[in-house]
Structures are given as C-alpha cells and as structure tokens.
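Morning run. Coffee first, then this:
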Amino acid sequence: MFEQAFKNVDDVLWKEAGCTTELDYTEQTSWLLFLKYLDGLEQDKAAEAALEGRKYTYILAPPYRWESWAAPKGADGKLDHNKALTGDDLRDFVDRTLFPYLHAFKQKAAGPNTIEYKIGEIFGEIKNKIHSGYNLREIIDHIDELEFRSQAEKHELSALYEEKIKRMGNAGRNGGEYYTPRPLIRAMVKVVKPRIGERIYDGACGSAGFLCEAFDYLKAGKLTTADLKTLQERTFYGIEKKSLAYVIAIMNMILHGVETPNIVHANTLSFNLADVQDKDRYDVILANPPFG
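And here it is:
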C-alpha cells in the first residue's frame, strides 16, 4: 500500500509545471510527509501525557494541525469533505497562512536542536510548488493513507523514502550531492564499528545516509532504555549546506526512528577552527564530502 501511495503522489506531481525533476518530487513529498509525521507525533505525546495524568502542550495551534486543515475526519473516521479545503482555498491557505506560520517557529524556538527550530528552518527554506489546489488535495489524500506510528510502518516507509533519494541521486549531474550508495555506507559503518555513547558526525551529511545507517547498526544490538535515549538525543550530528538536502536529511532520520535529528543547516567550511571547543568534538566521523 505504501509503495502505491508514493507512486500515486508522483503521478499527480507529474502534472505540475513547477515539478519537473526527481528533486522536486522528493522535496514536495517531504514537506507533506513531515507535517503528517508531526501530527502523529503530537497525538502520541498527548495520549502518553493523558495516561500519566499530565496535560500536553501542542506545538502547533489547532488550525495548523494536519487533522484540521489537511485531513479533517468525520465521526466515521473518513475525510469530512465539508471541512477539507481544496482548490484555490487550499493552495492559498498553504502559501499565505500555513507556511508563514510554520516559518515563524525559527525565531520563537528555544534552540537549534529543538523540533520547533527544525519546523521553522524547513518551512523557511522550501516552497510549495504544487500550484493547483486540486492536485494538492489529491496528493494530501494519498499522503494521509500513510501511517508511520509503529516501527514496522516506519521501516517500510524509510525503505521507500530511501528509494526516492536513490532515484534523486541518479537524476542529473548534481544528484550525487544527496546520495552515497548504501552498500558503500554499510561497509564503512561495519569497518568503523561505532559504539553506544560515541558521538557520530557527518559534516556534509546530504540525505543523512551515514547517520541513518549508523543508527540502524547500533539499534540492532541489545539496548537498554538509557541506550535508546542516548541514540535519540546524544549520538548523531550532521551539518548540511543545501536547503533541499537539509530537509531530506531530517525526514530520512525521522523515518528511521530519530524523533528530533541533530542536523544543522550551515556550511561546515565557514566555521573558524580557533572557535572549536571540547563540546564540538566527536568520536566518530563518517562522511563522503562532495568533490569534483
């Protein structure tokens, strides 16, 4: 089902004049996937808080949540066509209201490693290229079919997303900036043998292939709850200069199971080595810097 949904999305994007390459397809799919993911994450956290007798503070205000503007459901669990935006109304809401609202999180976030900052960064860098609100409605309906709440669902979706990245990497002369062949990455990870507690860094992370493979490698071991927390929060770090690659890296890590990826949108070569402190040091560097 997931594979067919991805194909259906690409078929609709093909109709859009603003989407002409695999890079465009992946970019537009990514921002929609991210918002769908964020909605599920917030619902899970709210349910967890309720079980513990706590009140969860949502990141997004009600009008901007996926369940409100993209896929409002009726009592029967099906799309409420009376509430779901479409056509020019949908396109205008996304372009004029949703994206500016999400971009503003960058200024309000407590720090660059928060999910709020990532939201603001992503929606300040990419634009909605789906100009037909009817095409956008159709794409949203396909994206809404995807579920990635369970590990099995995330695993299947991450494999399909990696396939999209691979196709993007093979598209045009600049595709290699985003993609390093996964067999090569897996071989490097096995040789390096990273361990729990080590900080792993990629200064030109592209689509975060090295970090995702290192995560899968470490996750395969027998882990305690503390180990899993370490993997989530204090293990994987990346920097990426290109806007599209940055967005894809975050989405790729999310689908692999890292809730709030420590990916920074910056140029590694712009940092002054004299300013490097102990907190900026890493135990393992896995990278394939762009060359040519």
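The chain has twelve helices and four strands. Good start to the day.
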